[in-house]
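Case study.
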Amino acid sequence: MKLNATKIPIRVGSKYIAVLNEKRAHFLDLHAGDRIILKKKGQKPLRALLDITENSELKETEVGLYEDTWSKLKTKYGDDIEIAVAEKPISTTYIKKKLNGERLTTTELNEIIKDVVAEDLSDLEVAYFVSACYIHGLSDRETADLTRSIVNNGNKLKFKNKVVADKHCIGGVPGNRTTMIIIPIIAAAGILMPKTSSRAITSPSGTADTMEVLANILNQAPKLTKIANKVGGFITWGGGVDLASADDKMIRARHPLSLDPQGMLLASIMAKKFSVGSTHVLIDIPIGPQVKIKTKKEGRILKRRFETLGKNLGMKVKVIFTNGDQPVGRGIGPSLEAMDVMKVLKNEEDAPSSLREKSIKMAGILLELTGKAKFGRGSSMARKILKSGKAYDKMMEIIKAQGAKRTKLRPGNFSKIIRAGKDGKIIEVNNKLIAHIARTAGAPKDQEAGVYIHKRLGEKVKKGEPLYTIYADIEERIEYTKQYPLNKAFIIKK
Amino acid sequence: MKLNATKIPIRVGSKYIAVLNEKRAHFLDLHAGDRIILKKKGQKPLRALLDITENSELKETEVGLYEDTWSKLKTKYGDDIEIAVAEKPISTTYIKKKLNGERLTTTELNEIIKDVVAEDLSDLEVAYFVSACYIHGLSDRETADLTRSIVNNGNKLKFKNKVVADKHCIGGVPGNRTTMIIIPIIAAAGILMPKTSSRAITSPSGTADTMEVLANILNQAPKLTKIANKVGGFITWGGGVDLASADDKMIRARHPLSLDPQGMLLASIMAKKFSVGSTHVLIDIPIGPQVKIKTKKEGRILKRRFETLGKNLGMKVKVIFTNGDQPVGRGIGPSLEAMDVMKVLKNEEDAPSSLREKSIKMAGILLELTGKAKFGRGSSMARKILKSGKAYDKMMEIIKAQGAKRTKLRPGNFSKIIRAGKDGKIIEVNNKLIAHIARTAGAPKDQEAGVYIHKRLGEKVKKGEPLYTIYADIEERIEYTKQYPLNKAFIIKK
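After joint prediction, the assembly is written out as follows.
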């Protein structure tokens, strides 16, 4: 059947979508979400997902093409497009199999991921896959297969080094920019550490957001490989490099209900390590009432799964539990965190010790894990590298290689100090509330916005002493933060 | 934030969708599937679902409105539209609860269905609800609550009669147009039977398609109520009347993977009965290797669930098992089936006995169930009504009331006879294959297309005798059917 092409001004990335008038679709016995083949003279046949419109301006004699589809077929208005019905991909039957509670084979999982990347599965079908994994779970073998499939169907970075170090933190702790201190230490020790980090989704800043204050966030694989080979590491945004792109597409389907199927979460994290060729990985699981993992029991289950997955993928994985009771460092928000990081790297006197000590500890473990330091000597080696200024120099090399941005860092122009309401001891810090406040103040979009913490858990305070300062670039954003109980972020007991 | 309105030429029914450029969405911290409030001066604020487009023709200063949204807000090009972020509906948390394997309360299920009808849940979220129901199942109580919610959030037909009869068949058997014989018999007996039927989805014809050959398929509730009160019944397409519209929306989400969560299937069927006020319902479960229900064991589980649901809803429900080994009647396809139906109603000599006897049996059970006939006397009463010509007269009243269409029925202009390849006895009839052939010949779109069956299971045949005839309105459609093994539809054993 030949129809006239007309353009629909929507672009959805690499997915090809065509729209038919309901009557035409009914005549062709087609439903929304079905696949069709679009044939235009002189162009390769294009497989597309079908959308249907009711009594629209789109005529029965027309086919509407989303922008991506339009340009892929090099269409002009009124061009003849031939429509043919296409089969559903076989992967839909595997998704149904998983919904029925069966385990999927290596090949079946790979087929699903292949079609996710090729955008031959609709968002609805990916959602069904997510829910099946969420409810039935993924076995250790399935998790390893899923990880490999994600890596094999995405871009990879290849290095000749035998040892490639990496780290990951199961988020939820504000501040906590250890990555930006660990990488220069490890790279200064001569170990390759190419790091792809995430941007904030619901938090005030991700490592990629904070790094972006100091340097360009690059996304070209060849350039990144060159930088890593030259200076021993980089810190960039994983999403931009298109590593593990299947994962990004599944995250989109998980968003509406914020579903975190554990097997998918593990595969998602480890695929990013695997795709840059990591051999030694340190996983940080903060535990606390206000972070993702609330109890040691939960933590131990996750630890076992990480270790098993690492073994199945042929990686050395070490999992540590850290304290997630309060923010790490004092700044929360891109610039404020970058300031903390630089203070630690420069060995400044007022550098936040929580951030320094946690980074040294973790860098030490990585030095031991990779065999660079003897068991029990990692921390002191890491501290030496940091104190010597070599970590700072390495960070400056990395920044220069990626392309330096700001050199002078500052907090936002507008601020509000929150003071203690009474004398006493700080017995609780509400991580989530602080994150909300920082985000409402503008972080991470407004780089200078956020929160600066003056007091830490266990410290004694006098009534009127500053507990924390809210910074914003736009004055009214300070006002917005008043929707939160600002005096509940720190609980003080007499 | 104020943006300029521009139109997207897609209409999706009652769902309101707005589109933002990716950069604008990122700036507003919005994701696809989030809800926003659209405010236009002089119009009520409108809640809409957000879609996002990449680097599109849609500018950062613009908001794209789907046709429905555009006209609802009475928009003109360039109008200022203010955008505000809206909360997700609370029903999304109930969907997550169900995904987590918990039971939902009456209120929670009603909230989900309310939002499904209001189109405040995205297709993705409805898919998550479907998959949760599919995997975890729905308890008897949840199924009854779901049914009531579907009915309460949709249109209803109200009748004063104390007894309202209904029937339903769990499809899969070609032909089988008993409804069109049972309704006139029951209505002729003085019992109200307002019947909403389905159209074919994957079969060669649904009751609504076959009825449409003879009469208009009406969809206005007041008119249907009037007809039922006047002549005692009608036969129309349920989908057009917008009864149980939540169900149609859930079916759309079930389509891509053809998911049939049992509780949803039950609720879907019974909601349609409940919304026309049915008090006595007969459910026909054909059992056979080529129909939906393959074994008596499966059938018994479904029977128990139907009976329990009926009890919970305060309906009298009777479930019977019938033979699903071969088509009922001889014609398959709208016109061919309508011809069978009229032959039975007219008591013609060559009327297919399988269709007549099954209809009489079922009408008899309904007459007993509703107390019109004494136990054991229903069939003979039904047969008497049919033989007397009263059922035919009633059918003509119904057709007239709905608006008569064709009076002269005929099969398609092109045909092909499939003959026995050898002498022997017919030991198997392949329902599915016959349905595929009829559909490929053009049914139900081409009303005259389909298959006419000459021989039945158990009959002896001689080599060269006609087994069945394929009819089509378009000659090449006969050719298309050759993709199937036409000589495998009937298995003959020497």
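Observations recorded in class. Chain B has four domains: 2-85, 91-137, 165-245+268-402, 414-493. The domain at 91-137 of chain B is CATH 1.20.970.10 (Transferase, Pyrimidine Nucleoside Phosphorylase; Chain A, domain 3). We will return to this complex in the next lecture.
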